[in-house]
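Lab notebook, entry 853. We have the chain sequence and a SMILES string for magnesium ion, and the next step in the workflow is to get a structural model of the bound complex before anyone spends time on docking refinements. Request logged below.

Task: model protein plus magnesium ion, output structure tokens.
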Amino acid sequence: MLTVEDINSYYGKAHILHDLSLSVAKGDVLALLGRNGAGKTTTLKSIMQLLPPETGKVQLKEQDITGTPTHRVSKLGLGYVPEERRIFTDLTIEENLEVGRQPERSGVPYWTREILFDLFPNLAERRSNLGKALSGGEQQMLTIARTLMGNPEVLLLDEPSEGIAPVIVEQMVLTIQRIKDEGVTILLSEQNLHFAKLVANRAIIIEGGLKRFDGTMEELNADPDIREAYLSV
Amino acid sequence: MGVLVAELLAGLANAAALFLVASGLSLIFGVTRIVNFAHGSFYMLGAFIGYSAMQVLPGAIGFWAATLVAAVAVGLIGVIVEFLVLRQVYKAPELFQLVATFGVILVIQDLALLVWGPEDLLGPRAPGLKGVVHILGEPVPSYDLALIGITPFVLLVLWYLISRTRVGILVRAATQDREMVGALGVNQAWLFTGVFFLGSLLAGLGGALQLPKGGADLLMDFNILASVFVVVVIGGMGSIPGAFIAAVLISVLNVFGVKFIPQSTLVLMFIVMAVVLLIRPYGLLGREEAPGEHGQVGDPEQPISPLQSTGKLVVAGILVVLALFPIFDSPFLLVLMTDVIIVSLFAVSLHFMLSLGGLVSFGHAAFFGGGAYAAALLVHYVDTPMSLALLMAPLLAGFLALIIGWFCIRLTGVYFAMLTLAFAQLVWSVVFQWGEVTGGDDGIVNIWPAAWASSTTVYYYLTLVIGVGGIILMRHVAHSPFGYSVRASRDSILRAEATGINTKRIQWVTIAFAGAMAGLAGGLFVFSKGSVFPTELEIAKSFDALIMVFLGGVKTLSGPIVGASSLTIVQDFLSRFEYWRLALGLLIILIVILAPEGLVGSARKLGNRIGLGRSEGPGT
Ligand SMILES: Nc1ncnc2c1ncn2[C@@H]1O[C@H](COP(=O)(O)OP(=O)(O)OP(=O)(O)O)[C@@H](O)[C@H]1O
Ligand SMILES: [Mg+2]
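Result returned:
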């Protein structure tokens, strides 16, 4: 579904990602694991072409999207949920969803406002409230819902469990499972191994922009050394 | 009572054009973060195109159709400008964008001259609305009443568009976070173009609608610019209701001003602005500016190091050549070179605060003209000797800069720039309207140098010594401990504060010092020309200085000198042609797009690329 081949990405002169490759098959939930500053966000931004890689290739359904403008990447079926959430604080919840809305595409899970309000009842109650009136957890829900309004085939989730209350984290697990069950392929970055285990079937570990592990969740579970070396457990 | 109501209605009618232009500017700024200085030009084009369309389309329907045609045509022109020019500079520093839009102003001025000729055009009266209506016994033009009805209608339409439609939602979202809107699949480029269309259309509509009241002429673009900025600043950048309230406030105030204190109408609006900003620094309905995405003047430069020996040699060589100029025995050349030196001093003083201090001033002419007027007034009224006047010019200009700076340092970025522009206009309007003292439009004449300096050659040497002295002084200050704290305040306010630097005070002193140096240039200017007119305080003068700094390249101290010299000489050359503004405007736009490092920066880059050793130290 989505493959990344040997990409190298830079912020200015700082070389962040080194020959990184990964691939996500249809229906997979792949967890991109790594410590603070490992390069998880950079990987997602490179895939999204918010930070086009200098070399290497990003392919979505066999189509090379390297260097394509971000808005077109989004239309081709990649949904991006940023780490900082970046909801529009001066817009209402409904308006936030409207910004993300894209037309229905055949063969791709179709999300409407009402379906999403079912999935996130908290948001439904507060649909006319401004974004800035929401709690951290609600903002996280909104940013996911907003991206789903674009009917993505592959969803890039940057640390969805970060900075939200434990109760909401549980809810987030259910949400991600539900999105997966609808048929959306998911690539999520995480520091929280426990959370990743609950939702993902495959995992990749990066450190310093280099790939250190690539395998199924079971394989990772069976390999405590790797976990110890590259994750803060 | 009746009189008051009639005045009020006149004020409301005048608010129409102002609101339309200001709301367009605000809208464009909100989404694209570009302060479109060419917005006044769109207003002017609206008037001209409306005029032509009204010649063709007859009757009442024709009149209103022509108004709409003009609005849409200007909207399309806005799209062309956006597409050809602004798209290239969205990511560039603010200064670059300003210079690009200024190039557009020049191009449009000459194109309008080319198409409609130099004569002022008398606006046709609106068919069916030619008479007056009596309200409480006072005659009120019917057309005024129509305008009073149209403005809230436009406001309503805009409000609907912005708050109720998908496009409006996207516009508001993009105002907050453009990149995220793009990541959600929205093509920003089209959004920007759309906003530019709408904003320009509003300006064009304003221009066409005021035709029956004011006609069309080639000065409309600059004439409305200052009021529009005042309105936008008072209302809050990016707020359309704010623009409406402020336009009404300013226009009503204006008509009452004309009625009761006719000498101070222009000044009044700036006083209101100063008061509003003291209470609400970001305008009535504005929000605090988010930290700039790309800085105001570009990346921090390499640290400017003191001149190395080769550099010193080059400078000495240039000085020797300058000192030898009089042997050519060409008064024309000496006068031109005197101009070049004065203008260089002016440009370097702007560069000092802009590049070193990160303080982008759009109103530097206030200090140049301020110094010039200080010297001229001293000579005119109390027969001050030239040497004393040349001393007082920088002191008084510096004092003026202290006052203006006191207000301006409260703001940052675009707001700072707007405020400096507004204050410069305040100074201009005081000089322009206070005719008994300043001579108003007629200026002050017969301010000649002292007898010993009256020959062109001697005055040239005097200018050379003082001008070069001033520039060296500024270089010296730039490398002094004070200069380093100026730079520290620019690069990181937090870090500078942490090391115990009072950044606001530093900025204040920087403005005062730069102002004084501009004033010195102004003093030299008066005696070289023998007269001074309000043009020395105009927006165009401030823009000239910005363009010089930009042309030379922001990052080097020699940049402004190179920029000032080349612009003065190019202008001198081009002004022999009829359409020199067109040529200059195109040249400026090309440089912004093709050589954004400026002349010195690009030359150095080229030099590096073809392998020339760097004979000069960085920052010479
Ligand atoms: N805008 C930037 N400019 C320069 N360097 C950056 C920038 N953003 C991130 N970096 C650097 O790139 C490296 C990878 O950062 P990245 O944000 O991808 O890490 P991450 O794995 O997402 O970390 P976290 O868990 O903290 O979100 C880090 O060393 C970081 O300092
Ligand atoms: Mg991250």
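Notes for the group: The interface with chain B takes residues 48, 50, 69-72, 74-75, 80, 82, 86, 88-91, 95-96, 98-102, 146-147, 150 of chain A (CB under 8 Å). Worth checking against the assay data. The two ends of chain A are 31 Å apart (CA to CA).
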